[in-house]
Amino acid sequence: MDSLLRKKLNRNNIDGAILLHEINSENSDLKYVSFKLIDLQIGITYREELNWQECCIVVMTGKITFTDGEVTHESIGTRNAVFEKKPTDSVYVSNNRIFKVKAETNARIALCYSPSSKQLPTKLIKGADIKPEHRGKGNNQRLVHNILPDDNPSANSLLVVEVFTEGGNWSSYPPHKHDKDNLPEESMLEETYYHEQDPKQGFVFQRVYTDDRSLDETMTVENGDMVIVPKGYHPVGVPAGYTSYYLNVMAGPKRVWKFNNDPDHEWIINS
């Protein structure tokens, strides 16, 4: 298995866009989730043909104009930095469409993909319509922005969420997994984490492990890194003094998020 920790690429892509991350089935063990992170300077246009994939375009920072030739959304995006903690605008685009994104300001976009064969309408997911959700208690608290949850019927496979965790707290915790296609008890969903920290010199720890420890990798994750979760439990610990942000993308054979906690640690939520 390839390393689960991925560093920035920082390479020029088509027409002046800067490709920071690219995760797909050719460079990872993932079959259902693909991901790109792209920086666009003001005035730069990025174009892509989706074929048999759907895509959620998350406007991480800055403002963009989106078009698929039929639907256009102008100057979308709500923040200059993710740690403003404002829910941002996103656009869902179905398979077999061509889309263009033009940077109205310097912008960073996340492109979240999964396989798709049923075409659905292009849809703007407004940040103003996303209600921030506070989860957990004690040292297990985090702030969640559900961009594309499983109760939103706008997508065939994709699930997309942003999570903010303050220093001294744990997230994706107690350790949980969703790697078995065994509904209603558990769903099989691959996952990626794109991480940022505030201040930027910060780091978090993320462990990805299975019950039999055939996979057991603990990583020091720095600002701008990605972690791939093909299976297993995947908790995140945030050191004091720093705030963690991550963007999760999930997909699998069924668009249902049903997880199970590690039984060794489930007592934590019952105590």
Plain-language structure description:
- Involved in the isomerization of 5-deoxy-glucuronate (5DG) to 5-dehydro-2-deoxy-D-gluconate (DKG or 2-deoxy-5-keto-D-gluconate).
- Belongs to the isomerase IolB family.
- One of its GO terms (biological process) is inositol catabolic process.
- It comes from Salipaludibacillus neizhouensis.
- With 271 residues, this protein is an all-beta fold.
- It has one domain (5-270): Jelly Rolls, CATH 2.60.120.
- 1% of the residues lie in helices and 48% in strands.
- It contains 1 helix and 26 strands.
- The strands form 6 sheets. It has a 7-stranded antiparallel sheet, with no helix packed on it. A 7-stranded antiparallel sheet has the order 2-3-4-11-6-9-12, with no helix packed on it. A 4-stranded antiparallel sheet has the order 5-10-7-8, with no helix packed on it.
- A hairpin with a 6-residue loop joins strand 13 and strand 14 (142-148).
- It is globular.
- The model has no long low-confidence stretch (mean pLDDT 95).
